[in-house]
Design a protein that fits this description.
Blueprint: E1 3-12, H1 19-37, E2 40-45, E3 52-61, H2 64-80, E4 85-93
């Protein structure tokens, strides 16, 4: 049976002074996640706030172990490879 996981990240983007700067940081992270991990990702909140963002990632895997491993890789990528700070995250498994 397939496992579906969603992960939401609330991000703070320090030093960001405009929506244009924010879009650059968010777009870079979204593209990196999509291209490297083959998951769906979207900005889901705070679109009009220049120093905050919420990204939600959705993934489907053939089993729970694989889904958990991929979700862990997403977590690491967001924490280690972005110019944003993770304020909060929430993971849901279906």
């Amino acid at each position: 049976m397939a496992t579906v996981v969603t992960i939401s990240f609330e991000l703070r983007i320090p030093g960001c002074r405009s929506l244009k700067e924010k879009r650059k940081v968010v777009r870079s992270l979204v593209d990196r996640i999509r291209n490297n991990l083959n998951v769906s990702v979207a900005e889901t909140a705070f679109q009009d706030i220049h120093d905050r963002a919420e990204l939600t990632v959705a993934l489907v895997a053939s089993d729970a172990r694989l889904a958990d491993s991929l979700a862990d890789r997403v977590d690491r990528m967001v924490v280690e490879r972005s110019h944003a700070l993770v304020v909060a995250s929430r993971r849901e498994v279906v």
